[in-house]
Amino acid sequence: MSFEYPLNYYQFFVSFNMGDYYECHDLLEEVWLEDRSNHFIKGLLQLSVAHYHYSYGNIKGARSMFESADTYLSKYSGKHWGISIIGVRDHIHDCLNIIPQTRPAGELPELPVLYLNIEEE
């Protein structure tokens, strides 16, 4: 069974996989504003914001957004809107384990890369 998703959702995958997390926020925010009860989209939105914060060194903001994303996505299991929830949550947990508690001197450790694709339900 195939499901039609909003165009911005499809565009989100391209932006996310390219590492353009700021654009991801804009794309998903439009989807979320149409249905604020959609905690799945809110979780992906927070995931994107977490990566964006980390990209410019805001570890406190990144940690907070990863935790928020995990909370929103914990309400789902299996696949939702074509995404493996466990895969995304595993990624979030991996990132939280890597992010330092305080800003270290020098460069931040690299976070693992997550590539998202819509999988058949």
TrEMBL record:
Transmembrane intervals: none
Alphabetical list of PANTHER family matching this protein: EXPRESSED PROTEIN
Pfam families cross-referenced by the UniProt entry: DUF309
Write down what this protein is called. DUF309 domain-containing protein
Tree of life domain: Bacteria
Q: Which organism is it from?
A: Thalassobacillus hwangdonensis
